[in-house]
Design a protein that fits this description.
The complex is a heterotrimer of chains A (102), B (748) and C (170). Helix content of chain A is 76%, strand content 0%. By secondary structure, chain A is mainly α. In chain A, α1 runs antiparallel to α2 and α2 packs antiparallel against α3. The longest helix of chain A has 31 residues. Chain A is elongated. Helix content of chain B is 70%, strand content 4%. With 748 residues, chain B is mainly alpha-helical. With 170 residues, chain C is an all-alpha fold. Chain C has six helices and no strands. In chain C, α1 packs antiparallel against α2. The chains are: A mainly alpha (102), B mainly alpha (748), C mainly alpha (170). The interface between A and C is large, with 75 and 84 residues.
């Protein structure tokens, strides 16, 4: 059986990251986009923890702790924003938010 | 006494006057008309008098300093260290420049005072005095310069002031609604420019050849090269000093022709009479137009080197001959044209051109002292004549206003020209003071002994007769004829203006001018009378012998004074057995009785003839034809003269006068030529440059084009801002991917 | 770093749930797929000897954050909001796929060219338990810790502000 090296984890992280970014770019539903962003954050967390294990450093996990904190705060505020926007536009299709068109 | 340190004040005073009057004059005027006039006028005149005071101090300092030249350096203007080229802003205080300063400031002060009265009531009073002070400043820069470039600054400056002052009443239009004053000013400026072009070329040649524009350096280098017979290397050609100086002096002649109104550039001066009379007196009689003569006299060394080197330009004529002939021809032709003029100022204008011709001819013949002497006396009596004519015009205008107020309605439909001599007459009863001073001036102009004009004119004539050579004789004859013409038109003017009966009601009501105008006239009349004392020749051979016994060389007073500045005189003298380097044509020291007698006789003849022929029948109205057109032959048969001779002589003379009147027409045609070809060509070129190049290429193409390109680019870039968040996210992602690829693949 | 088989199974689940989230038409389905994904990641944390993070991930991410998402989805009725016509330009989809592809390619290249991280002995490992995390937090990272708490405070305030309409006293 081949050993699970750090590369496997990085590969997985990259794959999840790509899927997350595709979600941001392609989907029109604002909440789905938000969720894709969370997916990207998670893939980064995975990479951090993998490296913490690989390099025998606790700091990687500490960073993940902070990332999770920040992600929580961000989700709260972001969803509040989406709700606020929904109040006026009655739609969460982000393609309808193009007032700043140059 | 040493007042040389004060020399820069000479330039400072008029400059201050210009600035003060220019900036604050209007406020004085708006505050209170009368006080304002008094303040501005006397400020300007006071500063002119202060400049005159400085000139007197400089004269005193020079006189007690053995008449040696002093240079007062103010600051260095242009410095090119690599080629050792320095043009300083420095004043040269020597006898010639002090003479000019005295004349310029003295006459200018008198004219300033006169102008306070003449320009009374004019809404642009302060602007006038600002310009007059500016003119004085530039003229003093011109005469006090120690190098050609500073002289040129003054030269251009007086040209500018001439433009400003001729076109002083710039919104005056004539019947066809053409701005005649502005056109005249522009004409003066442009014709002057042609002369300036010659000056610039000459200065460039001087810099090429001698590497400096300072008088002393140029003269010394030229003399050294002449003595050693070396040739210069210019543009790869070997050029002898004589040939180079021929070019330089010829170009100076061009400049002088422009500034001093010689053939062919005199056309601006008659038109310049559109300016106020004090302007005509100051600029076009006494000071600016003499700048050309000053230039030639100052460069006397260069001219004498040309004469000594024998370089001829065309038809065996050297530059000196050309100068002399130009002057003489101008003198005669202008004198003849003056016969047919009806405007009192135009007669004086042509007279000025004629007298300037005398001075230029004198300079060409090598009689530099005589030229300056005539310049001084001419300044006196011509200014006097102009100012008196201003007084006459003033009187006529006053009479005209009187008529309008009294309601003499029949004359009012026609346009009244206060300067038209045909409407004058009999003014000697109405304007006594003006009449007396005018007669003094007129007689001086005609050259009647013992007034100033006689002595100076005679010296010039004697120079012509006393030297051998075809050119000298020709010049003598031309000048003699010109002197006769001068006397004739002067007498004609006297007759038409002052004698006989008034030909127009306005003349009947003319009044004498106020004291502020007549006082300077009287002062000038005194100067005119006594001016001859400056350079009186010795009256007898015995006196000459007496003086000759005392020292090696004898000179007349002015000559002795000026000699310290005119090096060519010194260089041409045989001192202690040294061979003279240059040879000046002989200047007479005794009163040449034949010349004096001849000129005096011609002058009296001219005066008498004019008195008889002009307006013999005392026509009642101004519209009567000039009797010059009709030959009063029957009258001459009374005199014990050969009537047959008169039958031929008088018609021929009339024919000449008429031909010149046609020439006057031709003159307009000449102007027409100037108008069409030069002016229209220039305007066409300017329009072409404006529309095709400036508007189309530069404005539309470059300026607007770059704006449009920027706008187009911005429009294109604008399309990136779609407003959709997803597109922005895509751009971010694109950037990230590019960076990653770059880091991973391309960064080693 | 763990058992390969476990890794493979968990990886497949993670990827599948991620794709499910991406392609789901219904927002609630997408959220639930994401919960599954988070749980998988949490198990990975456990495998990688980070038990504290395992718990944290489940509690906060899968527990709080996703619940919040579901609340909002229910609130806005977003499950019914599908996609109308795409208005953001027709290049959006193709270019995104190309870019994602490039990213993957880059990574594969790195992996193949031996970009394996050096170091890493699997012998002396650090257990990411609460004690170790706590020690690290309060010794080296005190300041970021405090800042994070302030950040949470700010987020709370922000949410309240965003909720309030103008003129409300809520």
């Amino acid at each position: 059986m081949p050993e699970v090296t750090i590369g496997w984890y990085i590969a997985l992280s990259v794959a999840l990251f790509t899927i997350g970014s595709l979600g941001v770019l392609i989907r029109r539903n604002a909440i789905i986009i938000f969720m894709s962003i969370e997916l990207m954050l998670n893939s980064a967390n995975l990479a951090f923890v993998a490296f913490a294990r690989h390099l025998n450093d606790i700091n990687g996990q500490v960073i993940v702790f902070f990332v999770i904190t920040v992600a929580a705060a961000e989700v709260a505020v972001g969803l509040a924003l989406i709700v606020a926007i929904f109040r006026t536009k009655h739609s969460i299709n982000i393609d309808e938010l193009h007032i700043l068109k140059g | 006494m040493n007042a040389f340190g004060l020399a820069p004040l000479l330039l400072l005073f008029p400059a201050v006057g210009f600035i003060l009057n220019g900036l604050f004059g209007r406020r004085f005027m708006d505050y209170d008309r009368k006080i304002g006039e008094r303040w501005t006028g006397w400020l300007a005149s006071g500063l002119a008098l202060a400049a005159f005071g400085i000139a007197v101090l400089l004269y005193g300092s020079l006189a007690t300093n053995e008449l040696d030249q002093v240079t007062v350096n103010i600051f260095n203007w242009i410095v090119i260290p690599s080629s050792d080229f320095v043009v300083p802003w420095a004043m040269q205080i020597d006898t010639l420049s002090v003479t000019m300063m005295l004349v310029v400031t003295g006459v200018s002060s008198l004219i300033h005072i006169y102008a306070i009265g003449y320009m009374h009531g004019d809404p642009d009073f302060s602007r006038f005095f600002a310009y007059m002070n500016l003119f004085l400043f530039f003229m003093l820069v011109l005469v006090s310069a120690n190098n050609y470039l500073m002289l040129f600054v003054g030269w251009e400056g007086v040209g500018l002031c001439s433009y400003l002052l001729i076109g002083f009443w710039f919104d005056r239009v004539d019947e066809q609604n053409k701005p005649m004053n502005a056109n005249a000013a522009r004409k003066a400026f442009i014709v002057n420019r042609i002369g300036d072009f010659g000056m610039i070329l000459a200065m460039i040649l001087l810099v090429w050849a001698f590497g400096s524009l300072t008088y002393d350096v140029v003269f010394e280098s030229a003399l050294d090269l002449f003595k050693e017979g070396q040739a210069l290397n210019i543009f790869g050609q070997e050029v002898s000093i004589g040939a180079l100086l021929t070019a330089v002096t010829g170009l100076f002649l061009l400049g002088a022709a422009g500034k001093s109104a010689q053939i062919p550039l005199y056309v601006w001066l008659p038109d310049a009479m559109a300016g106020p009379t004090p302007v005509s007196a100051l600029i076009h009689a006494a000071t600016m137009v003499t700048a050309g003569i000053y230039l030639i006299v100052r460069s006397n060394v260069l001219y004498e080197i040309v004469r000594a080197s024998g370089e001829t330009l065309v038809a065996n004529l050297s530059i000196n001959d050309l100068v002399a002939l130009t002057g003489a021809a101008t003198a005669l032709i202008a004198g003849l044209i003056a016969f047919t003029q009806f405007d009192i100022k135009k007669v004086l204008a042509y007279s000025t051109i004629s007298q300037l011709g005398f001075m230029i001819a004198a300079a060409g013949m090598g009689a530099y002292v005589a030229a300056i002497f005539h310049l001084i006396t001419h300044a006196f009596f011509k200014a006097l004549l102009f100012l008196s004519s201003g007084s006459v015009i003033h009187g006529m205008e006053h009479g005209h206003h009187q008529l309008e107020e009294d309601g003499h309605g029949d004359d009012q439909e026609e346009k009244f020209d206060p300067q038209d001599m045909r409407t004058m007459g009999g003014l000697r009863h109405k304007m006594r003071t003006t009449f007396i001073v005018y007669v003094i001036g007129a007689l001086a102009l005609a050259g009647i002994v013992p007034l100033a004009g006689f002595w100076s004119k005679d010296e010039i004539l004697a120079q012509g007769l006393g030297n051998e050579g075809l050119v000298f004789i020709t010049v003598f004859i031309l000048l003699l004829l010109a002197a006769f013409c001068t006397a004739f038109y002067v007498g004609r003017q006297l007759k038409m203006v002052f004698f006989g009966k008034p030909r127009h009601e306005a003349a009947n009501h003319a009044k004498e001018s106020p004291a502020i105008m007549t006082a300077p006239l009287i002062i000038l009349a005194v100067l005119t009378t006594l001016g001859g004392l400056l350079n009186l020749p010795f009256f007898s051979v015995g006196a000459v012998e007496r003086v000759r016994g005392a020292q090696d060389s004898i000179q007349l007073e002015l000559e002795e004074w000026l000699e310290h500045a005119l090096e060519s005189i010194e260089l041409s003298k045989e001192v202690a057995g040294k061979v003279p380097i240059l040879e000046l044509p002989e200047t007479p020291v005794t009163l040449e009785l034949n010349v004096a007698g001849l000129s005096l006789a011609l002058a009296l003849l001219g005066l008498g003839l004019s008195m008889l022929v002009v307006y013999r029948r005392k026509p009642e109205r101004a519209e009567d034809p000039d009797p010059l057109e009709k030959t009063p032959i029957w009258w001459f048969s009374v005199l014990p003269l050969n009537t047959l001779y008169m039958n031929y002589f008088v018609p021929a003379f009339n024919w000449l006068a008429h031909w010149l009147a046609d020439k006057l027409d031709w003159e307009f045609w000449h102007d027409f030529f100037h108008d069409r070809i030069i002016r229209d060509g220039y305007i066409g070129l300017a329009n072409f440059l404006n529309k095709r190049i400036d508007a189309a290429i530069i404005d539309d193409g470059i300026v607007n084009g770059s704006a449009k390109a920027t706008g187009w680019l911005a429009m294109q870039l604008r399309k990136m801002q779609t407003g959709y968040v997803r597109n922005y996210a895509l751009s971010v992602f694109l950037g990230v991917v590019v960076l990653i690829i770059y880091i991973i693949f391309l960064v080693k | 770093m763990g058992d390969p088989i476990a890794f493979i199974i968990l990886a497949v689940v993670a990827l599948a749930s991620a794709l499910g989230m991406l392609l789901g038409r219904n927002a609630v389905h997408s959220a639930l797929y994401l919960v599954l994904n988070f749980s998988t990641i949490a198990i990975f944390f456990l495998i990688l000897k980070a038990p504290f993070l395992f718990v944290t991930q489940i509690t906060i991410y899968a527990g709080a954050i996703m619940v919040l998402f579901l609340f909002v989805v229910m609130l806005l009725g977003a499950e019914r909001l599908g996609g109308e016509g795409s208005k953001a330009g027709k290049w959006q989809l193709p270019v995104s796929i190309v870019l994602a592809f490039l990213l993957i390619i880059t990574f594969v290249y790195v992996l193949i060219s031996g970009g394996d991280a050096a170091g890493g002995n699997s012998l002396a490992t650090v257990e990411g338990g609460p004690v170790e995390i706590g020690l690290a937090l309060f010794e080296s990272y005190v300041f970021p810790f405090e800042v994070a708490s302030v950040l949470l405070l700010v987020a709370m305030v922000g949410v309240v502000v965003l909720r309030t309409k103008r003129g409300d006293n809520a």
